[in-house]
Design goal:
It comes from Paractinoplanes globisporus. Keywords: Membrane, Transmembrane, Transmembrane helix. Pfam families: DUF7144. This is DUF7144 domain-containing protein. The protein is mainly alpha-helical. It has one domain (about 25-145). It has helices at about 25-50, 70-90, 95-115, 120-140. Helix 1 (about 25-50) packs antiparallel against helix 2 (about 70-90), helix 2 (about 70-90) packs antiparallel against helix 3 and helix 3 packs antiparallel against helix 4.
């Protein structure tokens, strides 16, 4: 080694910030990102079905919780779905904006599916449960995925 290429001595220390230790919840945050992508796809499919086939969903005499036709609900689900897919990809890339949008979209998705319960109760209940799990993972442990 030449004189210009000296090794740093043991007494010279440099501060490198430590990243918080990742926990097992990193998997759940990745799961939340993947679920946002899947839920977005499901929402988009549900929206397209409502837009293209008004007679597909059956409701009771009371109808939907909110008085909207299926085409309006279809566009609502389609828009939520597309944004959820984009947010899910952002979550997998460790983006903070994606976590925030992911939580907002999951809340909107859960609320829209509560209103959609009379039309498709089992499907809407499953989507609501997955939305709640995604919200928990993104809010409590979302920072662990950042690179």
């Amino acid at each position: 080694m030449s004189e210009t290429q000296q090794r740093p001595s043991a007494s010279s220390t440099s501060y490198t910030p430590r990243r918080p230790q990742a926990t097992g919840w990193v998997g759940f945050v990745v799961f939340a990102g993947v679920m946002l992508i899947m839920l977005g796809g499901f929402q988009a499919i549900e929206g397209l079905v409502a837009i293209l086939r008004d007679d597909y969903y059956l409701v009771t005499r009371s109808g939907l919780l909110l008085n909207m036709d299926y085409t309006a609900w279809g566009w609502t689900h389609l828009i939520i779905g597309v944004i959820a897919v984009i947010a899910g990809i952002g979550v997998l890339l460790g983006q903070t904006w994606a976590r925030v949008i992911g939580v907002i979209i999951a809340v909107l998705s859960a609320l829209s599916n509560i209103a959609f319960l009379p039309a498709y109760p089992i499907w809407a209940t499953i989507i609501i449960a997955l939305d709640v799990l995604a919200i928990y993972a993104l809010t409590v442990h979302g920072r662990e995925v950042q690179y």
